[in-house]
Amino acid sequence: MVSIGYYTLSVIAFVAVLAAFMYADRKNITRSHGIVFYKKTKRGREFVDALAKSHPLFWRVMGNAGVAAGIVGMIGAVAFLVDAALTPKAGPGLALVLPFPSAEGASGAGFVGVPFWHFMIGIALFVLVHEGFHAIQARNENVAIKSMGVGLVAIIPWAFVEPNERQVRKKPWLSRMRLYAAGAFGNFLLAGVALLVTNFLFVPAFASGAIGFGGYVDPSQYGASEPFPAQAAGLAPPIIAFDGQRVETTEEFSAALAAKKPGDAVVVQTLSESYTIRLAAHPEYPDRAYLGVAGPKVVQVLKDAYRNDPLKAGSLNFVGDLLYWIFALSLGIGLANLFPIGPLDGGQMLRTLAERFTPRLAGDVMRASTTFMMVLILWMIVPVLLGAIGSLFV
After folding, report:
1. Which range of residues forms the domain containing residue 228?
2. How far apart are the C-alpha atoms of 91 and 223, rounded to whole Å?
3. Quick one: 191 and 110 in the same domain?
4. Strand ranges across the sheet with 30-32
5. Among the three residues 262, 295, 328, which one is the final residue of a domain in this structure?
6. How far apart are CA 102 and CA 111, in angstroms?
7. Residue 364 lies in a domain
8. Mean pLDDT by 10 residues, the chain (394 residues)
9. For residue 244, is it left (φ>0), alpha (ψ between -120 and 50) or beta?
10. At 45, which helix (H) or strand (E)?
C-alpha cells in the first residue's frame, strides 16, 4: 500500500479546491494554449491610481532607480550566462524552477524542485509585486490600464497588467524605460526585504550559530591512507557542541579543538546525533589535535528553546525557508526577465534604448540580441536535457 504524507495530501487538497473554484467560476475564466487560465478584471485600478497619484515624485524617483537597476541587471544577467556557458566547471547556469510536492524539494538535470508551498507563496508574491510595480508606473506616466488579471499556468500563479499600448508607444523613451523596468525592480526590492527580514529580524530572534563544513580532509594530500577522525566516524554537519562546549563561531570551534591533545576522546554533538571521536595528530603539527573537517564555516540553526519543540521548530523552519525562497525566486526570475529577448521586459528596454540612440539599427539590434540569447540558452539547456533523457535508457 502506498503511503502518502501530510505534505503531499495538502498539495492534493489544494489542487482539488482550486479546481473546484475554477469550475464554479468557469464562465469568467478564459482558457488558452491548453493549460493557461486567466480572469480579467477592472478591480484594483482605483487602488493603483490612488497609490500612484498620492506620491508622484516618489514613484518618479523609484522609476529612475528602476531604470538604472534594470540596465545593470540586464548586463549582469547576460554576463552571468556567458560566463556559465564558457566555464564548464560552473555547471549549468539555467534551470527550470518547478513546484515539488514535498517539504524537502529536489533537484536534477536542468531543474530545481522547490517545496510546493514555498514555491506557490514565493511565486504569488513575485507576480503581484512585479505586475503591481508595472501598473503603478503606468499610471504615474499617465498611461491608462485597460485591464488587470490573475491566472494560472497549469497550477503556477501568474498575474498581468494590460496598459494601453498605443499610449505607451507615444510616451518619451525614458517614460517607457521606467515602465518596462518597474517589474524587475519591484522584484529586486522584494528580494532585498526578504534578505533584511532574515538577517535583522528572523536570525537574531530565532537562530544561533553552529559549525558547518564542506566535507572531509583528504588524507592522501598528506601522504596518509587512513581517513581522519571526522570521516572515520561519519560526522555530519552542523556541529552545535564540542565535548560539552557550545560552539557558535569558527573561533570558538578552533579554541575548543586547540584545548585538546592527539588521542583525546571527545563528544561531538550535531543537530541529529552525538559522536564519540578519538582525535588524531595534526599531519603537519603532530602536537596538535586534529578532527579532519574541511572548510568549517558558521551556519544558522534554531535556538535550543525552539529546536526542541517540534511545532515551533517546524513552523520556524518553514518561515526561514520561505524567506530564502522569496529571495531566490524574486532575484533569479527578476534577473531572467531582464534578458534582452524580444517579449521580455529586458528586450523592451533594449528596444527602447536602440530606438532612442540608434533608430536605424533598432530592428537589427533586437534581432541580433534575441538570436544571441536564444542560442546561448539552448547551448546550455540542450546538453542537460539530452543527458537527462539519455539517463532514462541507461
Report:
1. 214-295
2. 31
3. yes
4. 30-32, 36-41, 145-153, 156-163
5. 295
6. 15
7. yes
8. 76 94 92 91 88 95 98 96 76 76 82 93 97 97 94 92 95 98 98 98 95 95 93 97 96 97 97 96 95 96 91 94 97 97 96 97 96 92 71 60
9. left
10. helix 45-54
288 and 374 both lie in a single domain: no
Report strand pairing: 207-212 vs 297-302. Answer: antiparallel
Residues 153 and 79 in one domain: yes
Least Cα distance to 295 among 217, 231, 209, 224 occurs for 217
Residue 128's CB is within 10 A of a number of other CB atoms, namely: 16
Residue 95 domain-assigned (yes or no):
yes
Domain assignment of residue 24, yes or no = yes
Residue 25: phi and psi, rounded to 5, are -105, 20
User: pTM (2 decimals)?
Assistant: 0.88
Distance CA 148, CA 161 (A): 5
How far, in Å, CA of 185 to CA of 179, rounded?
10
For the chain, the domain total comes to: 2
DSSP state of 238: P
